[in-house]
Structures are given as structure tokens and as C-alpha cells.
Amino acid sequence: MKYLLVTGGVVSGLGKGVTASSIGVLLQACGFRVTSIKIDPYLNTDAGTMSPFEHGEVFVLDDGGEVDLDLGNYERFLDLKLTRDNNITTGKIYQSVIEKERRGDYLGKTVQVVPHITDAIQEWIERVAQIPVDGKEGPADVCVIELGGTIGDIESMPFIEALGQFSYRVGPGNFCLVHVSLVPVINVVGEQKTKPTQHSVRQLRGLGLTPNLLACRSSKELDDNIKEKLSQFCHVPSSSILTLYDVPNIWHIPLLLSDQKAHDAILKTLNLRGVATEPNFKEWITTTKVYDKFHEMVRIAMVGKYTNLSDAYLSVLKALLHASVACNHELVVDLVPAEHLEDDTSKEDPDAYKAAWGLLKGANGILVPGGFGDRGVEGKILAAKYARENSIPYLGICLGMQIGVIEFSRSVLGLHDANSTEFDPKTKNPCVIFMPEGSKTHMGGTMRLGSRRTYFHVADCKSAKLYGNASFVDERHRHRYEVNPDMISQLESAGLSFVGKDETGKRMEIVEFPGHPFFIGAQFHPEFKSRPGKPSPLFLGLISAACERTVVPASKGYGKLTNGIHSPMLKAAAAHNGNNGFKSSNSSLNGVYTSTTTNGVCVDGRSC
After folding, report:
1. Contact yes or no for 40/155 (Cβ under 8 A)
2. Distance CA 229, CA 226 (A)
3. What's residue 585's pLDDT?
4. Lowest-pLDDT choice from 19-28, 245-254, 285-294
5. How buried is residue 534: exposed, middle or buried, by Cβ count under 10 Å (0-12/13-18/19+)?
6. Distance (Å) of CA 301 to CA 19, 359, 453, 599
7. Any idea which residues carry the catalytic annotation?
8. Residues β-bridged to residue 112
9. Which end of the chain, N or C, is more open, meaning fewer C-beta atoms within 10 Å of its C-beta?
10. What's the rounded Cα separation, in Å, for the pair 336 and 355?
11. In terms of Cα–Cα distance, which of 77, 60, 78 is closest to 69?
């Protein structure tokens, strides 16, 4: 087994996760099997109890692991199915060591950071690296390890020590270290400054780790004299100093690394040159450039709670992108703060209210993602009502499905106080309730998590057709509340159709509103299994339906939508999934555009 470690210096947020994923893609292109491990030095056992504002979205794996969003990047880039153990945290390591101590495994010994914690870290890495995650038998060839945080952080010190020992243990030729650092450009003089990277590498070397490659983040390509200076002071060959300068989207990074012959330096360090093939990026290059050819645009309003941080909905944005690429449309996503749609905002902040409704009315489709807590719930209900009454394509995920049921109960059944017991424990009409097997005393790891099977109960429903007329699907879940089984007959009598249910037939998984162009809610999170070249069927259905709507300028400067004919695109989407027309691959691009204003702003600076 070969090991490649990616560390970061100077500041956080330089893109270690994307760099690690891109290196994995590069190694796969050279013919090697790859697995990934993410080390998060925080004391939490996992990411499940952290706010999205702290760490972005919580990514959910098949085995129910609640992990860092970087594992989502690994799965999408490398087409892997990782496990909860592929995410190491300080909390997990200390918990395992303390459990051993309580069992008496260290009987007679004083349990210390060195050697017991550091040994536990190394044992964890070696054990997890052997687990196949690409659907093939046997371990991978290379394990790419990303160390979260920044070199010098107090909380990462045990991991640095453990990895220093580990590199010595596995020996030369089996360990490669790539250090991601910052080379800032001082705008006043336009000069690239190497001092931050010099200090970062000096600190890394002082802690017992020596970088084999430097990946330097900068706004522009490094000058040759800057590379020579870094080589001299950091003791790294100039040929092993890579520039990760700003590019239009992250899918260019593997190509950027390949162009700089990063694979040559990595393969040389890991003694893999003799068994490697020449990197094959033909498909990657083709699909990375395809987005530039799109002339038609599809606009999705995503109504959520955490709209100030797009990373909180990273997988949703990626799933929308995968679907829009499959439909040959340029994607614009308007992030609409849910509370800005509420009546109270019209009085407190009329401009924000007007802007939010302008975005909603100017969208080709509406999406309400998952979330927790009551902030913005009434705004989400208003968005679902607007979509249902105006025949706008709507996809509700997890809470978004429950929102659709609450809105229908209020507007159609006339149950004006209908609500979820999460938001109103005393409601007389609880159409969404706490699941009986859930824990009300412990938060971490107590939800209904991971891959669960959903059976279709209506053969000709839109959802089943989108999944290729399958009789069941396996999707990932993360929820504590469910649609009240006691209200199903009442809801279905009024027009809702619960087309997907769990194995017992009592837990609702997919709801549709027949007669609507596209109104679907899913209790699961389809975004977690969407891949480049193989978009999630429900996201593909949403984008397909949204592409059939055209925006007509309204007198007040907003967009007004006209009803389109949705069936041709939906049939095409279903056909693509039924015959596997979208080939699963590791290729796509990062053309997601987000905005919180009435004019969508593209990530590459263009006005949308």
C-alpha cells in the first residue's frame, strides 16, 4: 500500500480537499485504484451535531456515517463509496483509546498521547486503507490522506506526530507528502510573496514531516524565479512545485496538475513509475469544456435556512449541476433566504421581502432542501404553496417533503394549524411527527441514517419512471421526523399520492401531487448519490421540468413564468435513466452559479 498525505499551511480554506480529490483523479488516470481518508482534528466524534455554519453540510454515507463534506468531494470526484471510518476525528481516536483502557487492554501502563494515541491513529489509517471502496475486490493501490486544519494548530499535533512516525514506519517509496500553501500577490506592487510558504514548510519540517511536493495557491501562475526561490528555501525541487492558480471551476484542477507533470513527481516518490500508464484525460477534457457550449439557461430558486453559506448545500448544488449538464442547460441557482418570504419580513425589511419574492417568481423551478429548526419554516411553506398553485416544478428534500405535506394539509384540507411537532409540539393536527424509535435525549448518531430501501407502490408515477421503472431504490437518509401515518388516508383522499414507502409500508418516502407538472417530495437525500455523468433521477426530473418553462419579463422587473409542456423532457429523463444512457464517469465541471440578489451572479464573474 502506498500513502499520499495532503497537508495545508498559512491559512485554512485553500482547497486541500479539492487538491486531494484531484490527485486521486490523476492517480486513477494513471491506472491505479485509490481510496481516501479525511482527518478532522476536532473533538466531535463526527460531523452530525455541528451547524452547517461551522463546517458546511453534513455528508451522509451508505453506512449512516455523518461526515465532513470533503468525503462528498472524494465520492463525486473518484466515484467511490466510502465508510464512516474513512473520516477520522480526534473524538473517535480518543474514544477508542479510552474504551481500550477501560477494558484493561493497557493494564499496568500509563496511557499517554505518545505512544497510545499516535499508535491508534496509525492503526486506524492502516486498517481503513485496506477496505475496498470502489466496488472491486482487494485493497486499493494508493490511499490519499487529507489532514484537516492548518499546520501549527494545537489540535492537530497528535496527528502530525503520528504521521511523522508513520512515514518512517512505511519507509521511503511508500509515503508522499503534498503540502498546500499560499503564495499571496500584493496588489500594490503585483509581487508574489514566498515568505508565508517558507515559514509554513519550516514549521512542517520542524514537526518531523518533509514535503515532497508543494502545491501553491495563488491568483496567477507562479513565476519561474519564485519557484526557484521556494525550491532553495523549502528544499523541494522546482519540478515538484505546482501552481494551483485560480481557474473557472474546480474540475480544471486535475488537468492543471497533469499539465505540470505532478503525476511524474508523485509516481517517482512512490516508486510507481514502472507500473503506471500515461494519464488518460480524454473524457474529462471533453466534459469539462462542454458547459461553455450551453446557450440556454435554467434558473432554480433554492429556498433554505443557511443561504449565507453555499457550502451548507454543497451536494444539492452539485446534484443540480449534474442534472443541468445532462439537460444541456447552463445552471443558475438563486439562494433565497426562507424567512425573507414571510409576512413579518414585508413589514420589517420590505426590500428583502420584495427581492426574495422576485427570485421565487423568476425561477424555472423551486427546491426546498433539508434542514432543522423552525427559522424560515413559514417561508418554505409559502414557497411550496406558490409552486403548487402556479404549476411550478417543485422538489422537496427531507424537510422539503414535510413542508409540502404541511402546506397541502393547511391549504387543501383546511387544517390551518397543521404542523410538524418539531415546530409546534402542541398542534392539534400533527401531519409530521417524531419517529418512535428516535432518541429525545441524545442528538449524535440517533437519527434514521444511511442507505434505506424505498418501494414504489404506484407503478406509473413520475418518480418510478425517473428511476427507470424500478420496483425499489436505495437512497441515503438523515431525519428524525416523518409524515404522520394516521393522516395518510385523509391526505390521499384529498389528492396527494404517497408513491414510495419503506419496507413496512407505514413510513412515507416519496410523495407526488398528480396533475401537477412536477411536484415531488422525498424523505431521503438523493443529492448524496448524484455523480458527474450519472445525475440523481429526482434532480434530473426537476431540471427537465424546469427547462420546459420560459421566463417572461414582468412589469415590476421580476421574472414571470409561463406554463410549459413538461412531458417530453420528463419522458426523455426517464428514458435516460431506464437505459443507463448517462454513463457513470469521473468527469464534469463546477458550473454551479449561486446568488442572493435578484440578478444571479456566476462563480466565474459573469452576470446571469
Report:
1. no
2. 5
3. 32
4. 285-294
5. buried
6. 30, 7, 29, 12
7. 398, 525, 527
8. none
9. N
10. 9
11. 60
What sign does the CA torsion over 328, 329, 335, 340 have?
negative
Q: How confident is the model at residue 590 (pLDDT cuts 50, 70, 90)?
A: very low
Residues 197-225: what's their mean pLDDT?
A: 93
Handedness of CA 171, 175, 176, 181 (dihedral sign): negative
How are beta strands 430-434 and 559-562 bridged, if at all? Answer: unpaired
CB under 8 Å to 249, separation ≥6 — which residues?
288, 291, 589, 590, 591, 603, 604
**Whole-number Å distance between alpha carbons of 33 and 39:** 20
For residue 171, count other CB atoms closer than 10 A to its CB: 8
Phi, psi torsion values for 590, nearest 5 degrees: -110, 60
Give the range among 61-65, 251-255, 265-269, 480-484 with minimum mean pLDDT.
251-255
Residues 4 and 266: beta-carbon distance below 8 Å: yes
Provide mean pLDDT across the span 279-296. Answer: 76
At 249 the pLDDT is 75
Q: What angle, 0 to 180 degrees and rounded to 10, lies between the N-to-C axes of helices 399-411 and 377-389?
A: 70
What does the angle CA 546 – CA 547 – CA 549 come to, to the nearest 5 degrees? 70
Q: How many CA atoms lie within 13 A of 120 on its CB side?
A: 23
Distance CA 306, CA 310 (A): 8
Joined together, the cell numbers standing for residue 227 give 519557484
Look up residue 222 and give its DSSP letter: P
Q: Looking at residue 292, what is its pLDDT?
A: 61
Give me the sign of the Cα torsion angle 185, 189, 193, 195. Answer: negative
- How much is the pLDDT for 188? 73
pLDDT band, residue 286 (cuts 50/70/90)? confident
Phi-psi label, residue 535: left if phi above 0, alpha if psi -120 to 50, beta otherwise: beta
3-state secondary structure 113-174: HHHHHHHHHHHHHHHHHCCCCCCCCCCCCEEEEEECCCCCCHHHHHHHHHHHHHHHHHCCCC
Cell of 301: 430558486
Structural contact between residues 394 and 424, judged by C-beta atoms closer than 8 angstroms: no
In tens, the pLDDT along 71-123 reads 999 999 999 999 999 999 999 999 999 999 999 999 889 999 999 999 999 99
The alpha-helical segments, DSSP class H, found in 193-281 are: 195-206, 224-234, 253-259, 262-269
User: Cell 409561463 identifies what position?
Assistant: 562
| The three grid cell numbers given for residue 272, joined into one nine-digit string | 510507481
Domains of the chain, first to last:
2-287 (3.40.50.300), 294-548 (3.40.50.880)
Under the banding of pLDDT at 50, 70 and 90, the label for residue 604 is very low
Between β-strands 481-483 and 430-434, what pairing exists: parallel, antiparallel or unpaired? antiparallel
Cell readout for 220 is 496567477
Residue 551: φ, ψ to 5°: -95, 130
The Cβ of residue 591 has, within 10 Å, a number of other Cβ atoms equal to 22
Nearest to 73 by CA among 584, 586, 592: 586
Q: Is 202 exposed, middle or buried (0-12, 13-18, 19+ CB in 10 A)?
A: middle
User: Rounded mean pLDDT of 15-28?
Assistant: 94
